Amino acid sequence: MDKLLSVAPSPHLKSSTGVPGLMFGVVIAMMPVLVLSVIFYGLGAIVVTATAVASCVLFEAIIQKYVLRHKITVSDGSAVVTGILLAFNIPSDLPVFMIILGSLVSIGVGKLTFGGIGNNPFNPALVGRVFLLVSFPVDMTTYPNPTGLNASLAESYIDASSGATPLTLIKEGIKAGKPVSELMTQVPDYADLFFGDMGGSMGEIAGIAIVIGFLYMLVRKIITWHVPVVIVSTIFAFTGILWLINPEQNADPLFHILTGGVLLGAVYMATDYVTSPMTIKGQVIFAVGIAIITVVIRVYGAYPEGISFAILIMNAFVPLINRYVKPKRFGEQLSNG
Amino acid sequence: MLKTFAKGGIHPPENKYSANQPIVSIVPPDTVTIPVTQHIGAPSKVIVNKGDAVKAGQVIAQSEGFISTNIHASVSGKVVKVDSIVDSSGYKRPAVFIKVEGDEWLEGIDTSDALNENISVSDEEIIPKILEAGIVGMGGATFPSHVKLSVPRGKNAEFLVINGVECEPYLTADHQLMMEKGKELITGIQILMRGLRVKNAYVGIENNKKDAIKHLTVLAANHQGIEIVPLQVKYPQGGEKQLIKAILNREVPSGGLPIDVGAVVFNVGTTFAVYEAIQKNKPLIERVLTVTGKSVTKKGNYKVRTGTPMKHVIDAAGGLPEDTGKVISGGPMMGKALNSLEVPVIKGTSGILIIPDEEAHRKPVQPCIRCTKCVQVCPMGLEPYLLQVLSEKSMLERAENEYIMDCIECGSCSYTCPSNRPLLDYIRLGKQQVGKLIRSRKQ
């Protein structure tokens, strides 16, 4: 009797990159942002992130085991990514119970209700964030001022002095009829905006760190450049036009890019595999949509920032985009012409 | 910047352990089993009976219909029986069993190694002689070569493309053939150019075989119309549609053939067989193949008679390693896993790859995370994740509209999927069902 051989259809080779590898790659790409938020917001940033990650992972395991009676899949790392993203989207002095509640909504409602990883139409972290925003509007829109690394936990987390974000300052000011040139003197300069010295949610303040994370994910081939670059350049172009038309009524494009989580959303959230289109062409449409909706919300809507809503709205269009936007097939033109 | 195809593709580890190993002839076994289906198309009709004495090179099964070809005895001896065997496809097929006695060749076959560059046949004789010699595509597709050379009315052959890409990891037989039989290949190319009546031939070779590029470029310099084209290393560049795109920047239309863009593609192994058929009067009864794998002791390139059981070839290469998990006929990306080592080597067997047990099993399947990697690597511009679902759910018309029949089954999607999804398994199933649907519509 011959030795028994394994038989399977080709291919017999398999690349070594698996889902945990990709998710872990995203986690590494988010580390520079975390480091910068700890530098500016101190221990509060750690408390918030640890709470969000722990509760996302725990809720996923508990719901899978006791409610869905399903295999526990937390080892794929996607709940860790959701937890960190949720933390990046909230102020670093948000009370613990709110973070836990937000995590429950992210994982429970945003992800597992739809069938878990791969099946959720909306970005889970953003579902949690928007839930918190509409439930606790005051806590979610007052941001701690940067305290620095040396501040005690009490200073940085429990009773951190809070203020408005630069974007809110400008928005409120324009509404009150003040010219932009005067308002701009009240906000940090561009270098501070880029290097993170401003009020905001944990993850949105650190432009430089986000750019590093973006480059890392490009090099590791976790994402392609299309979605982030198209979002940022479209927002730049759109706000640029508005600014050129009336510079006293509209903030300049660079200010728009560096504030209100544009970079955070473009790099880490709009690129979420599950909730973005399957073709490059579709991703470009998706990105342009996000950019336009963001600017419309900022300039004409009630909220100072808008990228979270813009991403969620465009998430809803993804199945439609996938249905009608197809890759260019090999040999297609010739067969039709 | 070297040329390559535009869309998709992957870079699996090359693992070409047997590169530069000289070609070694393997002594024929005691009994060969020669299947009468070694090609795409109609099975050949057996014309020998039990007890007949045959010589090497003698026709034992005749071409039946246009898309078919001749099958020859690869050894001399006595026909023991004509019976069914399971071949590398996994199906039972008739085969001729020949007990080997001596090594006597049919008269008129030049078995020497002497180079013959002087082409004395007329252009008209080339195609019939290629059919007579039973030549089929030796890259794995086994399409009868005389059919490819017979350009249909209304089509025009402009270029001959020679496939020296050997993009499958592990395999090195074509590489070694280019190194050892370069002059013969150039003569084979000239014969094919005359058969097709074309003025230009391009030989595509990937840049991981720099020595072969250099060697053939020097040899081709004296011959007008033959150009060696170095290509970037990217799988599946050896797919004929990808190769034509890379070299000529022309896209074979969906559902079409290379001739629709004026190209005819031959593998280097096939080209060498054409040389032997025309210049040495020798039918296709032996071929060079790679025997390789991490634990194989004598990894190398071997010249093997058709009908030789895989086991005999593996024994000649040092025997089946202890840790064997899977034995593959062909390369790791498109080859077929064998369930028995009694399966014979046929005209299309490009290699025998032995994979250790720890690499022989698939990883558990996880849900699709819609990472788009399968769409990015598909060289045909398809959406494998979607075709998989459509096939699984038997949504055949939708699958047809999503161009499922364009899939070349290169396996890049399954290779790259981080969730280990069996994309190509389902797409193959869908292709079979859609093919049935299309055929039923025509009736």
* Total number of helices of chain A: 17
Which protein chains are joined by the largest interface, and how many residues does each one contribute? A-B, 43 and 71 residues
Number of domains of chain B: 4
- Low-pLDDT residue intervals, each spanning 5 or more residues of chain B: none
| Beta-strand proportion of chain A | under 5%
Q: CATH superfamily assignment of the largest domain in chain B?
A: NADH-ubiquinone oxidoreductase 51kDa subunit
Strand order of the largest sheet of chain B: 1-14-13-17-15-16
Mean pLDDT of chain B comes to 94
Ranges of chain A where pLDDT stays below 50 over 5 or more residues in a row are none
- How much strand content do the residues of chain B show? 15-25%
Tally of extended strands of chain B? 17
Q: What percent of residues of chain A adopt helix (DSSP H or I)?
A: 55-70%
Structural class of chain A: mainly alpha
Q: Using only CA atoms, what is the Rg of chain A? A: 21 Å
Distance between the termini of chain A: 58 Å
